[in-house]
Specification:
- It contains six helices and five strands, in the order H-E-E-H-E-E-E-H-H-H-H.
- With 179 residues, the chain is an alpha+beta fold.
- Helix 4 crosses helix 6.
- The relative contact order is 0.09.
Length: 179
């Protein structure tokens, strides 16, 4: 079985499910798949869906694992997805696990250049711009955008990044920020 036949089979499964019981929308990134379902699914629904997808992936030696299931909030990679209070839209925000680990004094990995490396200031500012642009691009709710940017700035400060570099980064991002 090749990747094209797997994608065709995925589409077939989604059409069958959509016609009979629920509408599903998969969101894939490399080997991660998140599936949105238009109804509150119980454990039985989730396992049936997993079984249908597993039949496809078993052909190429892959197994599926349900990592999370929620009707309110879920994380995938660097994204956190939640449903607004009225249940009318999905809110996408940044899933910054490292800042919470650092704040709790847990082991955390350093994902930004360390100040001890003494790189040129442009390296640090470019890193901050890239990270903050990513947050601005992903977030679709201003309340979460502000929170996520604040957390990112906190992480930069904890890394020892200079205040004037952070301010320069923010100034350079002003034209990029959506109104």
């Amino acid at each position: 079985a090749d990747i094209v036949s797997i994608i065709c089979e995925e589409d077939e499964i989604m059409n069958i499910i959509e016609d009979k019981t629920m509408t599903i929308r998969p969101w894939r990134f490399r080997d991660n798949i998140m599936i949105f379902i238009d109804k509150k699914a119980d454990e039985n629904d989730i396992n049936k869906l997993k079984d249908k997808f597993e039949k496809i992936y078993n052909k190429v030696g892959l197994t599926l694992e349900i990592e999370q299931s929620s009707s309110k909030k879920i994380s995938m990679l660097s994204y956190q997805l939640s449903i607004d209070e009225k249940r009318t839209k999905i809110i996408i925000s940044n899933n910054n696990k490292e800042i919470y680990k650092r704040m709790r004094n847990e082991n955390h990995k350093s994902r930004f250049p360390d100040m001890r490396a003494k790189y040129d200031k442009k390296i640090y500012i470019s890193t901050m711009i890239g990270q903050m642009k990513s947050i601005i691009r992903i977030c679709n709710d201003n309340r979460y955008l502000i929170r996520d940017l604040q957390l990112m700035i906190s992480e930069f400060l904890l890394k020892g990044y200079k205040h004037d570099w952070i301010l320069e980064t923010i100034n350079r991002l002003q034209s990029y920020i959506k109104n």
